[in-house]
Hints:
The protein folds into 3 domains: 27-94, Elongation Factor Tu (Ef-tu), domain 3, CATH 2.40.30.20; 98-381, Rossmann fold (3-Layer(aba) Sandwich); 384-509, Lysin (Up-down Bundle). Helix content is 38%, strand content 19%. The protein has helices at 5-17, 151-156, 175-184, 202-214, 232-250, 263-276, 290-298, 308-311, 339-347, 356-360, 383-406, 414-430, 440-451, 463-477, 479-488, 494-509; strands spanning 27-35, 38-43, 51-56, 59-66, 70-76, 87-94, 96-99, 107-108, 125-128, 166-169, 191-198, 221-226, 255-261, 322-330, 350-354, 373-374. It has an 8-stranded mixed beta sheet, sandwiched between helices. β11, α4 and β12 form a beta-alpha-beta unit. α7 (290-298) packs parallel to α9 and α12 packs antiparallel against α13 (440-451). The model has no long low-confidence stretch (mean pLDDT 93).
Amino acid sequence: MDINPAEITSVLKREIEGYDSKVEVESIGTLISIGDGVARISGLRDCQMSEMLDFGDGVFGIALNLESDTVGAVVLGDFTKAKEGQTVKGTGQIMSVPVGPAMLGRVVNAIGEPVDGKGAIKTEVSYPVEGRAPNVLERQPVHEPVQTGIVSIDAMIPIGRGQRELIIGDRQTGKTAICVDTILNQKGKDLICIYVAVGQKMSTTKSVQAVLEKHGAMDYTIIVNAPASESAALQWLAPFAGTAMGEYFRDRGQHALVIYDDLYKHAMAWREVSLLLRRPPGREAFPGDVFALHSRLLERSAKLAADAHEQNPGQYQAGSGSLTALPIVEIQQGDVTAYIPTNVISITDGQIYLETDLFNSGVRPAVNAGLSVSRVGGSAQIKAMKKVAGQLRLQMAQFRELAAFTQFASDLDAATLAQLTRGERLVEILKQPQYEPMPVEEQIFMIYAGTNRYLDDVPIAKVKKFQKEFLAFMRDRYPQCGQAILKSGKFEGDTVEMLKAALAEFKKTFTA
């Protein structure tokens, strides 16, 4: 066999030219100890904060403690698969979750994996769970309403797009019910909803899902579920994952609403993770950064400026998008001065306080209008609602004051009696069945009727009958009245006269 030197030379030249001199570098550490979902790893010299770590067998973790010679990490998923002495790899990626329209209608866990049995979710975009909050120049004031469909909230404690409104109250006072009604009221509108369940019973989340499916609301809703049976690490991560999913829509000029149910259980999960990581405890054994935990979560909710995408094209693809937050905090015995409630109250733009005594007395939703506040106020209402709600708020305040002073009095003058009579009927108007949100124009009709003495001669027991029949009458005989309010956003001139005529006509036929 003859050896041709020219052939050998050409092969060698080809190999040298095609030689890839890149060196692949992997960050590798050794697992020292693991237990209760927390791992300590030696090595990983160039590990970053919140970096994803690969424990093998499909088990991942997040680096949270960066110490001089070890890394403390929380394990996501089944930590029993990981064994001491095994190799742990750094991925070089900050913890992210899949986002996008493909997530709508699905129930996912805290790392964005589907848990509803409907197959894989195909999405190519992922967002970091610890996103950057928009700065002052990238924001604009809140000026668009988020209609909840609940009369007492839309009239007296309005919520706007980009706002953070806390819902606070004892257990079993209707906190989740308000949020579910708000989601149901977005049907046919342009608001995408994300419901984050933290530390809830699986049956509670299932019942919420069933209600949303029954009313066709899952089409525009994502449920992020981190039940009480999951590890504390996943419960801590879930609100951040839900926020990242909402940011995807916000950054594209769309509107999203994220509900955290609830942040007290979230703080408890973070306390568990922190104590296992050997971080020093502070007040009530919570770590020192528990305020920062909720602050950096809620500050990501904002109404973006119209030119936000010009200021920061790397993050925003369109301006004027919004992310609205409805955090829930459960309190004990009505104590709003506890550590976590006061923290969240100081971060949010107002609170809706639900009172146990009101709930037990049959006033549902049990909103205490005296202790509730929206720091955005009338900016988050259409002009028509602002016009009638001012009278409602004033008359309800006068009624509460008179009711407190006159509960022991026997002789009352006619003016006081008239105010008490009207106040009692306004309370009836504000009562509302669950899962029956009311359109804004119908809210305006009833508030106008109540504040302008049209209900003063209707027996209290018949107010709801009056409401039901009158709203049906308006839909049938005067549909143009509601259409005029929705089209212009105003309640004046011919529209007011039309409603007055309709009320006069209806009262002639109504039988109590």
